[in-house]
Amino acid sequence: MEFKSGIIIWGFIVFSPLAHADISYIDKNHILNTLTDNIEQQYVEVKKIDKISDALTVLKTSSEFTSSQSQEQFASLLTAELQKFDKHFTVQWQNPNKSQNNKTKREPWFTKLSRKNSGFNRVEVLDGNIGYVDFWGFAELSKNSKSVVESVMGFVSNADALIFDLRNNGGGSAEMVQFISSYFLKPNTHFNSIYSRVTDSTREYRTFANVNGSIHLDTPIYILTSNDTFSAAEEFAYNLKHLERATLVGERTKGGANPWQFYELGSGFRAGIPIAKAINPKTKTNWEAIGVKPHIEIPQTNALDVAYKMALNEVKKSVSDEHQIKDINDKLEELSNSLPLKEK
After folding, report:
1. Residue 16, pLDDT score
2. Which secondary structure element, helix H or strand E, spans residue 56, and what is its range?
3. Which of 219, 234, 238, 232 is nearest to 163 (CA)?
4. β-pairing, 269-274 with 90-93?
5. CA–CA separation, 288 and 269 (whole Å)
6. H-helix or E-strand containing 73?
């Protein structure tokens, strides 16, 4: 989500509530004007800028603007207004008096990912030889995170089908999307591009020429999604969907496709402004504001069972081992008994 040093980071933007403090009407006006100027100069979706500027002008005359008395309230008000246009917008206030030991401080997204196994919660091989991978973020690509991914891919390398659970995945690094995708697509496959307004240039993202481990071009892939699936997780799902490499099961995703960068607004405020956007080589567009629509659109609570059933039926077509066929049939019967009637 964030754009730093030429590296595209998708991930979360989070507003952290801080201690109460008063803010003057004059300061609010100055911050809003500076914010508007920065959006006009930096925001990637140029066609939306006039509408955003008009909305901020209207906001200045609203009772909510007048009544917001603290920095936190004002930052939240601006964030809520801007996210009507782009979910990667944010406004934050950094409390200069905040203690470094304040328990309300949020751990940075990528620090948390690095500390918690690069985001991977659960990796296993389900009955019927179906691989299952559950992870909540795309870590920055590093020696350690690559090693974790290589271990994950090695563990499920002999599975006959794979399920990626992105229902709670908030995004992260586009380079990690590139790395994981390289296990399931031909080398040098063009799967996404990022246009940057700042440089007025477009960078193509292609799969790596080599990865450590097997490349699985024919293994059926199922991706579980929800309304919380966001940013880089959406890119992974969107790319594989439009390359006809995966079947998506679950809910339409949140809809954030524009990497961002922070800009200082003064008085301790800063704004995260989307300065780039994804461009899929096939659709020539992206999932911004509309999300990624699954092939099978169902409540996310049922997505795993439905995808698992689909995977078992697909694998059953090509296996001959009588013991695996029995495993598959037993599991299919169990799933059929547990699924809601409308999904059977």
Report:
1. 43
2. helix 49-60
3. 219
4. antiparallel
5. 26
6. helix 71-82
| Alpha carbons 317 and 128: distance in angstroms, whole number | 12
Q: Quote the distance between the C-alpha of residue 126 and its chain's center.
A: 26
Count of residues making up the chain: 344
Q: Please, are residues 305 and 214 in contact by the beta-carbon 8 Å criterion? A: no
Q: Nearest 5°: CA angle at 35, between 33 and 37?
A: 70
The kind and range of the H/E element at 242 are helix 232-242
What span, in angstroms and rounded, lies between the C-alpha atoms of 73 and 259? 25
Structure tokens given for 280: 């899929």
Give the closest residue to 160 by CA, choosing from 123, 129, 133, 126. 129
* Predicted confidence (pLDDT) at residue 209 exceeds the cutoff of 90: yes
pLDDT at 79 (0 to 100): 97
CA distance 58 to 273: 20
HEC readout, 168-231: CCCCEEHHHHHHHHCCCCCCCCEEEEEEECCCCEEEEEECCCCCCCCCCCCCCEEEEECCCCCC
Instruction: Judge contact between 229 and 256, C-beta under 8 A.
Output: no
pTM for this prediction? 0.86
Q: What is the pLDDT at residue 19?
A: 45
What whole-number distance in Å separates Cα of residue 163 and Cα of residue 309? 11
Specify the 3-state DSSP secondary structure of 1: coil
53-to-28, 87, 108, 131, 313 alpha-carbon distances in Å: 16, 16, 30, 48, 52
